[in-house]
Amino acid sequence: MLAARSPENLVEIQDVRYSHGERAVFSGLSLTIPRGAVTALMGPSGTGKTTLLNLITGQLLPDEGVVLFDGRVVCPCSRRRLYQTRRQMGVLLQQGALLTNLNVFENVAFPLREHTKLPEQLIRQIVLMKLQSVGLRAAWQHMPSQLSGGMVRRVALARALVMDPTLIVYDEPFVGLDPISKGVIVRLIRQTNDALGITSIVVTHDVAETEILADLSYLIAGGKVVASGTPQDLQKDKSDIVQQFMQGQADGPVPFHLPGPGYAEQLRTMTAA
Amino acid sequence: MNAAIRDCWLGFSRFVAAFGAFQIFSFRILPYLPKAVLRPRLITEQIYSIGALSLVLIMFGGLFVGMVLALQSYNTLVEFGTIDLLGAFTAEALVRELGPVVAALLFAGRAGSAVASEVGLMRATDQITAMELMAVDPIRRVVVPRVIAGVISVPLLAAIFSAMGVLGAYLVGVHVLGVDGGAFWSQIPERVDMTTDVGIGLVKSFIFGVSASLMGVFEGYNAAPNAAGVSRAATRTVVITSVWILLLDFIVTGLTLPEV
Amino acid sequence: MQSERGIDISVGLFILLGLGSVIFLVMQTLGLGQVNSGDSYTLQARFDHVGDLKLRAPVALAGVTIGRVSGIRADPLEFRAVVELRIDSNFSNLPVDTYASIASKGLLGGKYIELSPGGDEEFLQDHDEIELTQSAILIENLIGKYMLKGTDE
What we know:
The structure holds three protein chains of three kinds.
Chain A: E1 9-20, E2 23-34, E3 38-42, H1 49-56, E4 64-69, E5 72-73, H2 79-86, E6 89-92, H3 104-115, H4 120-133, H5 149-161, E7 167-171, H6 179-196, E8 199-203, H7 207-213, E9 216-221, E10 224-229, H8 231-236, H9 240-247, H10 263-268
Parallel strand pairs in A: 3-8, 3-9, 6-7, 7-8
Antiparallel strand pairs in A: 1-2, 1-4, 4-5, 9-10
Chain B: H1 2-29, H2 33-36, H3 40-51, H4 55-79, H5 86-124, H6 127-133, H7 138-175, H8 181-191, H9 194-221, H10 227-256
Chain C: H1 2-29, E1 40-47, E2 58-61, E3 64-75, E4 80-88, E5 99-104, E6 111-116, E7 128-130, E8 132-134, H2 139-152
Parallel strand pairs in C: 1-7, 2-6, 5-8
Antiparallel strand pairs in C: 1-4, 2-3, 3-4, 5-6
């Protein structure tokens, strides 16, 4: 596979294999993330969605295969080049991960202070603008501990956007939020993507939200892509695993019972498998 | 029997591995040190949090240790007619040994565990990962300022401890036990030498400071990313740092004691 | 932002306190008799036995410290101890018949050098040797002597 520069795909995963210890997480995964669109990565728990994100951000190195960002291989790389690549990415982690010793304003200003030598006035304008876009300009003085879960994520979003990245990645942004907060995040993701012309990747297992939000969806199970297309395409997909996931069925290709010794046998003798 | 031997071997190899990881971590920090002076604000914040906030503990500790030292040694010194040496005796014990060692142990308990918890919590709440994703090197931003702050703070704390100790000994010795004030102070230079005693004390406390800071940050940085991991990091820091300080003290004292 | 000022002040105070303590300790241990080579001259003295005389032990005149022991070594030819004394230059008028004896500070005190000047008109110069010396009196020898005496009777 040649690492060709593909203008319409910001991120390309090409035949990636990755194992965590003995467990094979990906056995030949390939997908592309088109520019300017919101792409959803879905799958049952434990398929390695977060691992995939780590591969894209260069936190992990694929055993085989290539991860491309903007036509260039993400890793192997030097720390400096990796940091350069990352400056074009904004990542919103599941818990927001705000720095607890800084207030909201300082948290959003953090990348600016670390990477640029902008004057204080300019920093203030940029930070307030980003906070305004997530609706939290009035909370600038609060400490992260004083914010609700949804608000933490919105501040984290503002922070992820402050350096005007090309790609923004959301790691499970809807987990643990009430319907109103979910609605807020959905609106923010869509608005940000369209208004700023950036590319968004949303890792989630929220089928309902994805339906509203995503331009393109991938369903990943068993270390491979099992379905791709618009959310509507996935709904119509007839394969078992896609149906189980989209309908939320308790049993199917992902079994209800964890594989193990036979029931009758274990009732007789309780030994470790 | 085999199981016991195997456990010993496992424990030993784990210890060696951890020690090796610690060395690698420490060396990894070295290149960042020169540039760190460009961010004095970060260092100042850390000196406040681990040094200035330890002051009360250190000052009280020093004062009381000095007072106890005076009380303890009074009887023996009086018996040999050398009570005038109370000042010299306590000063020497404090400056050479008690100051550096006890101050470092108190530091390990208060500041070492605090640093380990702080950094461990940052690790557990993904703040360190977030920094890496923001292309900010967490070693530069989080680790190095704390190490430098510790290296600066511990010798100062040890000196403050010793000074308070001598004052404490003076208060008890002269104002409670009736030792002659003039003799108390004048005998100190006779027995306590600036270069050897004060100097060795400062060198020791510097070495302890380096160790305590590095260990606290190391444990926190590599803590398991959950609540149990953080508390384990804190307790491990205190235990390992304390043992290491006492061991180092023994070695340094042994090496420097035989003086003519 | 306001607490930034507070932190700076606290850190400043802390460092001042620390440095102050260091200076305090240094001042306390910097005694009199800290003679540097600019203001001092050296004398030598040989003894049969120095006891536990240590480096930097005081050299006293009429009980007042005017110098320090700056060197102790054994002479392989004469099998005696050679002690080097660094004396304050203000006392460059010690007669050549000055007596140097090793005395004890109290029963358990450390050893020091006591100088008793004679009456000669010639003075000891830099690097001269004090001829008249009294070695250390060792307790063990005294006790031994008295024990022998006792058993005689």
